[in-house]
Amino acid sequence: MTTNTKRISLTQFLVEEQRLHNTVSAELRLLIEVVARACKTISHAVGKGALGEVMGSAGSENVQGEVQKKLDVISNEILLEANEWGGHLAAMASEEMETIHLIPNRYPKGEYLMLFDPLDGSSNIDVNVSIGTIFSVLKAPEGMASPTEQDFLQPGTHQVAAGYAVYGPQTVLVLTTGNGVNCFTLDREMGSWVLTQQNIQIPADTREYAINASNARHWYEPVQRYIGELLEGKAGPRGVDFNTRWIASMVADVHRILNRGGIFMYPADAREPDKPGKLRLMYEANPMAFIVEQAGGAATNGPQRIMEIQPTALHQRVAVFLGSKNEVERVTGYHQEA
Ligand code: P6P
């Protein structure tokens, strides 16, 4: 990873990506710029906090049955409105909407599909802890037929771009188009995204893990055994002490791991045996898996690479183990022994 000295804007970076890689079309470049502008608008709304009357509950529930925060709804609207008229998308899907959102007939349709979690980590909004936006871009089916939900159900390996924004002490945008991972920091005075980290690489080993330990009594045996060994530290089979972090905003935990290594885990557990985990495959796990793999890390559901999972439903959930490659591969071994 190199920390950039010459000031390169997101626009210049994407123009050069397009020039260098035939996988980055002008349409995709323009789409990413639209999403980046929408994230700037969301960052501004989030930053107002109580002064912007955007805190607290919206008094509604989303398709997941979760209480929607005002900012969940606002962020979703910002992304929908920003992307409807641009002509880059054929349809969108969001954690906050039950079904797909088609581009209104008055606007041209584009060649891409986009899925997003407009505001990840909502439980942290009212207590001023970092939250973010996650997005994933797929190719739309050829021809002019109107996309269906089935057209979105592509494995993560089909993603052409993915990214997340973190609305924290700084607002950052982390992006991959399949040619490495780069980070842009929002220059609030100029209102522009500036390249601040190039070709991010996750350390292959780590002594830091992220999991919600309050669920320990519900974990299945492989996870119990794996975490138990981490907790034994120097005296145990790992021979070293470990540290734990859990922010309850996937974007913030992943951003830490991208920068200093670690393993993020949200395993399936016995609370809901019919659900393979809490996190959603299409707009949380897949985009983060794309980014993590492009940064030299690994992302599995325990036994299987997340990006090879064939989706069967728009809002399906998945177990997630992602981050430092050697640590994630070690976890897979526990599942194979199960
Ligand atoms: P828990 C936020 O709601 C989220 O989807 C992820 O961003 C985060 O990692 C996880 O859920 C937190 O879950 O059960 O610890 O609140």
From TrEMBL:
GO (cellular component) term, any one: cytosol
Cofactor (UniProt): Mg(2+)
Residues holding Mg(2+) 2: D117, D120, E284
Cofactor note: Binds 2 magnesium ions per subunit.
Protein's name according to its UniProt entry: Fructose-1,6-bisphosphatase class 1
Reaction equation(s) it catalyzes: beta-D-fructose 1,6-bisphosphate + H2O = beta-D-fructose 6-phosphate + phosphate
E.C. number(s) listed in UniProt: 3.1.3.11
Top class in the EC scheme: hydrolase
One GO process term, biological-process aspect: fructose 6-phosphate metabolic process
Taxonomic lineage of the native organism: Bacteria, Pseudomonadati, Pseudomonadota, Betaproteobacteria, Burkholderiales
Fructose-1-6-bisphosphatase class I N-terminal domain span: 9-197
Subcellular location, record wording: Cytoplasm
